[in-house]
């Protein structure tokens, strides 16, 4: 689940004036408590002064669409269109997708590209820049596990098909 967390902090600008910010970030977490813990864990790396969490709320994004070429986040409204055959009318189910892009047109194009495998009809009625500064997905550490990990002593390697083919067949008893 995604949580929008607002963080308030102060920074001294180039004119030696203290400027206060209250900015939203998006965190992937299982609960409000975990979202708060993740804010404290992550933001200490980016903000050198004290900061305060001023708000945590559940974000209404159905999906996050990162794009390494984008530098801002855009909130895109996606309307999936289905036909109610009994009533003969269209039904629209709206959802919001957060897309990383450089501008509104780029966000639209990134979203359309991510929907190429979609079989249902859809419309994108709005694309607006989001105030969210950054998104912190959840990583459990397994994503970066080394490939040459040592095999524990109590494990034995799986036999390849070649080694199985060269083994002697097992003797079986015939049952009459």
Characterise the protein shown here.
The structure is a single chain. With 176 residues, this protein is α/β, with parallel strands linked by helices. The chain folds into two domains: 1-59; 60-134, no CATH class. 16% of the residues lie in helices and 41% in strands. It has helices at 32-43, 104-114, 161-165; strands at residues 2-12, 18-28, 51-58, 61-65, 72-84, 89-101, 121-129, 135-136. The protein is globular. The N and C termini lie far apart (61 Å). The relative contact order is 0.16.
Q: Notable features of this structure?
A:
single chain, 2 domains
Task: Give a summary of the structure in a few sentences.
It contains 3 helices and 8 strands; from the N terminus they run E-E-H-E-E-E-E-H-E-E-H.
Summarize the topology.
Blueprint: E1 2-12, E2 18-28, H1 32-43, E3 51-58, E4 61-65, E5 72-84, E6 89-101, H2 104-114, E7 121-129, E8 135-136, H3 161-165
Parallel strand pairs: 2-8, 4-6
Antiparallel strand pairs: 1-2, 1-3, 5-6, 5-7
Got a strand count? 8
Question: What does the main sheet amount to?
Answer: 4 strands, mixed
Give the overall shape: globular
Major sheet strand order:
3-1-2-8
Classify the oligomer: single chain
Strand content bin: 35-45%
pLDDT averaged residue by residue: 83
**Terminal Cα span:** 61 Å
Determine the structural class based on helices, strands and strand pairing: alpha/beta
Number of separate domains: 2
Order of H and E elements: EEHEEEEHEEH
* Tally of individual helices: 3
Spans of at least 5 consecutive residues with low confidence: none
Residues in helix, %? 10-25%
């Amino acid at each position: 689940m995604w949580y929008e967390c607002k963080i308030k902090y102060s920074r001294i600008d180039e004119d030696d004036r203290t400027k206060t910010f209250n900015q939203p970030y998006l965190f992937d977490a299982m609960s409000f408590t975990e979202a708060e813990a993740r804010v404290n864990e992550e933001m200490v790396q980016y903000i050198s002064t004290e900061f305060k969490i001023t708000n945590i709320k559940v974000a209404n994004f159905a999906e996050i669409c990162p794009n390494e070429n984008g530098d801002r986040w855009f909130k895109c409204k996606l309307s999936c269109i289905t036909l109610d055959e009994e009533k003969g009318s269209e039904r629209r189910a709206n959802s919001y997708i957060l897309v990383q892009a450089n501008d509104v047109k780029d966000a639209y194009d990134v979203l359309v590209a991510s929907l190429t495998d979609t079989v249902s009809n859809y419309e994108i009625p709005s694309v607006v820049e989001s105030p969210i500064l950054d998104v912190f997905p959840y990583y459990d550490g397994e994503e970066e596990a080394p490939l040459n990990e040592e095999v524990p002593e109590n494990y034995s390697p799986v036999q390849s098909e070649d080694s199985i083919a060269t083994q002697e067949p097992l003797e079986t008893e015939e049952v009459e």
